[in-house]
Design a protein that fits this description.
The complex is a heterodimer. Chain A contains 15 helices and no strands. The N terminus of chain A is likely disordered. By secondary structure, chain B is mainly α. Chain B is built from 14 helices and no strands. In chain B, helix 2 packs across helix 14 and helix 13 packs antiparallel against helix 14. The chains are: A mainly alpha, B mainly alpha. Chains A and B meet through helix 3, helix 5, helix 6, helix 7 and helix 8 of A and helix 1, helix 2, helix 4, helix 5 and helix 6 of B.
């Protein structure tokens, strides 16, 4: 606390700090551009929903088809994010701790879902996981429909969310000091015990960040999902697709309601993540 | 997200063993038995092959399923060319605009202190958490036939939705934060001492930027441009909402792929898709190269 006060006092005043040129120009441009491209367009959804009465809005979002679309979106995104937590932490661990041939190649490939256009991912995953596909054959043979089903949606969302967990956990593992692990081993802890009680707790903030980003991205994802999902109402229709359908039918109130719900869900998720992060940092931080 | 950060330390399990213990002879207390290591590597490889490598291979395999002639026909189709041109033109407009914004935002956020800086910084990230279909929808609410400015545009005979300006707006929104997100941490870490020294020595603003700041951030800036470009060329959801899918006119490459796919012209769809796969691979290679450059500096 004391050092904080000393630091703020030592800081020069706001005015004196602006030795460099271009503050007004860049701040002005940044604010205008941000407003034109993001803030004003996005505010239309909020303003548009104010035009509806509360009961109209409630009637819209309690529509059975909308509820089931959100249920499917949330469930598949959640399962995909949880799956990615397990396999993503494992992948990050292997990439940081072990050496094996082709490691550089695989490390670079992790970013593929960010770089590959979602529509391409969508048609390609559908080709692989449909009934006659390379992997689909195996899934269908054991009775799991891996395309045109909730499983198919989850597969697409696992693809989309894969880099989030790996890329948030990887830097933490790289900076991790093995001293505490050595201490745990010397004190007689088994390797698994060390991982669960010593390493994992340190990874939790990063895992949480990656999980939330993947989860939020999954709820809004459109391109990679619509090809593999089959898009059957009440079964495999996701919220973004239902919004698109409403738009095509010029049902603007319906589309607005879905859009507003989706925005609220993703902002709520990010808010909860920041809150947990903040409390975690206060309890465990230095 | 910096894929190759800490590359030098990556093999730490082997190199950080205490008392010079051998890599193979003695198992370090901070590593697992060889069987466990092999098992974990194996699981990861299966996961990566199933999720990342097979989708890449499938695109090329499907594209060539009916022979190279069908694929070549898909590439030379005039509608495909129109889609390629529109995609390139969109990226050519969107990437420089978002780069100028990124530079401007990073400059005022990292070089100055002012009230609301944290808020501004988080507002820039908003498009990351907005679904692409919403990104398209908001421009329909603004400029569509029934939108707020719809009648005004109509009176002047201007069209934004179902036309290229709409495609550019949707893409601008979706790729908005990429350059800024790369530059802000980088310029934050570099501080302002060098710029301050240059100003003291009498440099003008423009000279300061081109001689001091730009050389310092060039690799980070290029990295941001590469990611922004990949997303701009591949954007599907936002563009799908605003484009209207008019063949040869408002179809970008991803939309062209969708139409071919829905017409059951699978080989043609995958042939066009293979071009985008090449773009993605080029992006990954550039990311890798730029990241190494960035670490050296």
């Amino acid at each position: 606390m004391l050092t904080n006060i000393a630091e703020t006092k030592a800081k020069p005043s706001r005015k004196a700090h602006r030795v460099l040129p271009g503050f007004r120009l860049t701040l002005g441009f940044t604010l205008v551009y941000l407003s034109l491209i993001v803030l004003i367009p996005l505010s239309t959804i909020v303003l548009q929903s104010f035009q509806m009465s509360g009961s109209d809005f409630l009637a819209l979002i309690t529509d059975k088809r909308i509820i089931s679309a959100f249920k499917i979106s949330l469930l598949t995104s959640l399962s995909a994010a949880l799956f990615n937590v397990a396999l993503g932490v494992l992948t990050a661990w292997v990439l940081v701790r072990y050496s094996f041939p082709g490691k550089t190649f695989i490390n670079g490939l992790i970013d593929l879902p960010f770089a590959l256009p979602t529509a391409v991912a969508g048609i390609s995953l559908t080709a692989i996981y449909s009934q006659n596909g390379w992997i689909g054959q195996i899934f269908y043979a054991v009775g799991i429909p891996s395309a045109y089903s909730a499983v198919g949606i989850t597969i697409a969302l696992v693809f989309i969310g894969l880099p989030f967990i790996v890329r948030t956990v990887q830097p933490v593992l790289e900076e991790w000091d093995t001293e505490t692990e050595e201490a745990a081993a010397i004190l007689g802890a088994y390797r698994l015990r060390t991982f669960v009680f010593i390493i994992l707790p340190q990874l939790i903030p990063a895992i949480l960040t990656g999980f939330t980003l993947a989860f939020a991205r999954g709820i809004g994802e459109y391109g990679s999902v619509i090809f593999i999902s089959g898009n059957m109402p009440f079964k495999t229709e996701i919220a973004p697709l239902l919004m698109m359908t409403k738009l095509e039918q010029f049902d603007y109130p319906g589309a607005t309601a879905i859009a507003l719900m989706m925005l609220l869900i993703s902002f709520l998720l990010l808010f909860i993540m920041n809150l947990i992060q903040w409390r975690y940092a206060r309890r465990w931080g230095s | 997200m910096h894929p190759f950060e800490g590359k030098a330390k990556a093999n730490s399990a082997g190199s950080s063993l205490p008392y010079g213990a051998g890599r193979t002879t003695v198992q370090a207390v901070t590593s697992e038995s060889q069987a466990v290591r092999r098992l974990l590597i194996g699981i990861m490889l299966i996961f990566i092959v199933l999720m990342l490598i097979l989708p890449l291979a499938a695109v090329f395999s499907q594209a060539l399923k009916k022979g190279a002639e069908v694929a070549a026909l898909a590439w030379t189709d005039p509608d495909a060319w129109a889609a390629i041109r529109l995609t390139l033109a969109t990226a050519l407009v969107v990437v420089p605009l978002n780069a100028i914004f990124g530079l401007s935002a990073a400059w005022c956020i990292t070089k100055f202190s002012f009230r609301g800086k944290g808020l501004l910084s988080s507002l820039i990230d908003i498009p990351f958490s907005v679904s692409p279909v919403i990104a398209g929808f908001i421009f329909i609410l603004l400029f569509g036939a029934h939108g707020w400015f719809g009648p005004l545009l109509d009176a002047h005979g201007w069209q934004i939705i179902f036309s290229w300006p709409g495609i550019i707006l949707g893409t601008l929104f979706v790729t908005f934060p990429f350059v800024a997100r790369e530059l802000i941490p980088l310029m934050q870490a570099q501080g302002i001492q060098e710029e301050e020294a240059a100003i003291t020595l009498g440099a003008t603003g423009w000279k300061l930027f081109t001689r001091i700041t730009l050389p310092n951030i060039k690799w980070g800036l290029l990295y941001g441009l590469v990611i922004c470009n990949a997303r701009a060329m591949g954007e599907f959801g936002a563009v799908s909402v605003v484009s209207g899918h008019i063949r040869g006119v408002t179809n970008t490459m991803p939309l062209h792929i969708e139409i071919l796919y829905h017409e059951y012209q699978f080989s043609a769809a995958f042939a066009v898709a293979s071009l985008l796969v090449l773009l993605a691979c080029l992006t990954l290679v550039l990311q890798y190269w730029l990241d190494r450059k960035r670490q050296v500096h």
